[in-house]
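Hi Y.,

Following your request, here is the sequence exactly as I used it, all 137 residues.
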Amino acid sequence: MTRSRTIPATELRPNAPDILVEAVVAALDDDKAEDVLVIDLRGRSSIADHIVIATGRSQRQVGAMAEHLHEKLKVRGQDVSIEGMTQGDWVLIDGGDIVVHLFRPEVRSFYNLEGMWGLAAPQRAPDGMAGAGAATL
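Below is the corresponding structure, written out as tokens. Let me know if you'd prefer a different format.
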């Protein structure tokens, strides 16, 4: 009789946290999120492996981004909890290895999560310049 062995997910998917981050950033890009910032917390905190911070232009956009991201993470098999959907000013999505904060611009500026991690707030690219993509720190 052969004994079965459970293979850790990291053996099945090398760099699984990085793949998850890429999926989150791609989903946010699809929803036209602005000022996407990825903070790598590995070795710095036990909260999560990564924090992703992004901005939506309105409560409606923040809510839509949160709903889409919630669905995409669940499809990937992530346990997901979500807070702040009713207001749409700041939505937190906890996916275990990744925590996503979605803000309206003025709310993001007020709470300044980047500053809590010793980072400068994102600067908006001048009009006409490519500002797409995510900054990773």
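DSSP finds five helices and six strands in the chain.

Thanks again,
Q.
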